[in-house]
Design goal:
Length: 349
């Protein structure tokens, strides 16, 4: 009941905090977006480091420092390759957009003529053509990727400080909590949160990489323009369940129709990319994780809308990883666990 002064004050304070948080996220996106990317990369580095440490050559295993250095080198090399790929392809893709737009007009005119012959009456698709602006869509994606690539140094700087901070975090926990039992509970909770986020980031990245590589093979075999760029986009979109997979298949498929003007090529690429998404998403990933992504589809759509509004296309790429991390953190505390249950797909967290 909001009749009570205390309840009214609580509601007003909560509403004000939400409004202030959204405002800060919008105004400070130049700071927060690189920071979120750095957090994801740092978890990926730690997961890869632990994987390297599990390698056994007879009785020898790499020590912790060697695993960490190896993971840092691998991830930094991968980031450098992605930045180079974006720099080499992004302008060419945007410059080619007007040609795709002209081909789209031609394809839609042909479709209108075929439907007109079948129905026996004229059909006008001019309004639909005007609503489909390929250059604007590609420009938005290009802007998001260029923004991320342009912030590479800042992101890597954040990653370096986050990794360094982990080395001094344990003494800080011990200094803050004098009670050993409370210190143990806090440390256990933080370790569990870290382990689950680390596992999610590692599995999702490896599965997205697998989808991207297989898609690149398919697109290269059919000689699609900018195959490497579309494979990178598929890799990024695969972080977004359901919707991301549909968009990842739709983009190269439609552009294949515009490039080749052949329905045979259109359906070949459609079937090939869709088969990869289904095989990895519904066969391999559930076996690796033990279950599919435990996040409510309603919250996924809501997250896409909210973060897309706040941070644009970049926010949509980051929305689901952030939601998963938030759900994992909320599930560790009794007060916030009900929220995590509502966010989950099956009520199991």
């Amino acid at each position: 009941m909001l009749d009570s002064p205390s309840n009214l004050t609580s509601f007003t304070t909560t509403f004000a905090l939400i409004g202030m948080t959204v405002y800060l996220l919008v105004v400070g996106q130049e700071i927060f977006i690189p920071l979120v990317l750095a957090i994801l990369i740092s978890y990926l580095i730690m997961a890869l480091s632990h994987g390297i440490q599990k390698i056994k050559i007879q009785t020898w295993s790499p020590p912790a420092w060697m695993g960490l250095i190896g993971a840092i080198l691998i991830v930094f090399l991968a980031v450098a390759l992605i930045v180079q790929l974006v720099a080499d392809n992004i302008n060419a893709v945007v410059e080619t957009a007007p040609q795709y737009q002209d081909r789209l007009t031609s394809v839609m005119d042909n479709m209108a003529a075929i439907i007109e012959r079948l129905l026996g009456q004229p059909l006008t698709l001019s309004a639909v053509r005007q609503d489909i602006d390929i250059q604007t869509v590609l420009g938005s994606i290009a802007g998001a990727l260029q923004s991320i690539a342009g912030n590479t140094f800042q992101i890597l700087l954040y990653v370096a400080f986050l990794l360094f901070e982990q080395q001094t975090f344990d003494p800080k926990i011990k200094a803050v909590f004098a009670d050993s039992q409370r210190e143990h509970r806090v440390r256990k909770t933080l370790n569990e949160i870290g382990d689950k986020i680390e596992k999610y980031v590692w599995i999702k990245t490896s599965m997205s990489l697998l989808v991207g590589i297989l898609s690149y093979v398919v697109l290269t075999l059919v000689s699609l323009d900018f195959a490497a760029f579309w494979a990178l986009l598929i890799f990024l979109l695969n972080y977004i369940p359901y919707i991301g997979s549909l968009i990842a298949v739709a983009f190269p498929t439609v552009l294949a129709l515009l490039q080749f003007g052949s329905l045979t090529m259109f359906f070949s690429i459609l079937i090939g990319l869709a088969a990869i998404q289904v095989f990895v998403g519904n066969v391999i990933e559930p076996r690796v994780t033990g279950q599919s992504l435990n996040l409510s589809p309603v919250f996924i759509v809501l997250s896409l809308s909210v973060w897309g509004t706040v941070w644009g296309v970049t926010g949509m790429f980051l929305s689901v990883p952030m939601m998963v991390m938030i759900m994992i953190i909320l599930a560790q505390f009794d007060q916030t666990r009900p929220i995590a249950v509502l966010m989950s797909q099956k009520g199991e967290v």
